[in-house]
Amino acid sequence: MKEVKDSGSRFQALLDTYLTRGINALNDKEVLELMLCYSAPEKTAEALSDELIEEYEVLKKVFEAPASSFDNTQINSQSLVLLGMITPLSAYYRFAQNEKLKKDTVFDKPEIIVDMIFPYYIGKKEEQVVLMLLDDENKLLFCDIVFRGNISEADVNIRELNHLCIKYRAAGAVISHNHPSGVPIPSDNDINITKKIFASMRSVGTVLQEHIIFAENDYGLMSKMKRCRGCFGEP
């Protein structure tokens, strides 16, 4: 026999709000509770959403938490899978959106470049470097992760960056990395590495146009920062 949800249930109230007014009509706890109702009994979903929001404060941190952090909660395996899928699905959706950007888009504005690169950093807890290569019309030739780890180690891979510039005959390049637990402000090391990469790429005919630092939902453009003057060939 199929279970029929009580029309007066809390689940139904949350669902009706979502369907009629959209997800922004729900707070973080209510969104989480509504989700968990599809993988756990309603009372469990309500108690668990209370517990998780109290511990993590915001929904984003719940989604990004490692599975092991839920060991002492009453979460079941179905709910664990559901929560674990949210962040990678978000990145997958952004990558899918970016497919239409790849063809014929001119990457000559920071906002367009950021939109293209940002999905590589969604939910990432480790530092990684993404390289974007452009032709002489600022159209995309290549965009992918080229290095994982602290960017202070990236100087040993400058030869590989040059190899990619030559392979794709790139006229321009944008490099980016993330500060997973910090702010998008470059360190002295970030500045020194950028100067090295600019000089090295110039030797193979590629102009490093920008170095973007991502931190959570923020980003910083090093070319716009006074303390980074000289990183991109400025006097």
| Count of individual helical segments | 8
- Provide the number of structural domains: 2
Strand order, largest beta sheet: 2-1-3-4-5
Low-confidence stretches: 1-7
Quote the average pLDDT.
89
CATH architectural category of the largest domain: 3-Layer(aba) Sandwich
From the alpha carbons, calculate the radius of gyration and give it in angstroms.
22 Å
> What is the CATH homology-level superfamily of the largest domain?
Cytidine Deaminase, domain 2
Order of helices and strands: HHHHHHEEHEHEE
**Which fold name fills CATH's third level, the topology of the largest domain?**
Cytidine Deaminase, domain 2
What does this structure look like?
This protein is of the alpha+beta class and 235 residues long. It has two domains: 79 residues, no CATH class; 126 residues, Cytidine Deaminase, domain 2, CATH 3.40.140. 43% of the residues lie in helices and 15% in strands. The chain is built from eight helices and five strands. The chain has a five-stranded mixed sheet, sandwiched between helices. β4 and β5 form a beta hairpin. The protein is elongated and about 65 Å long. It starts with 9 loop residues before the first helix and ends in a 14-residue tail after the last strand.
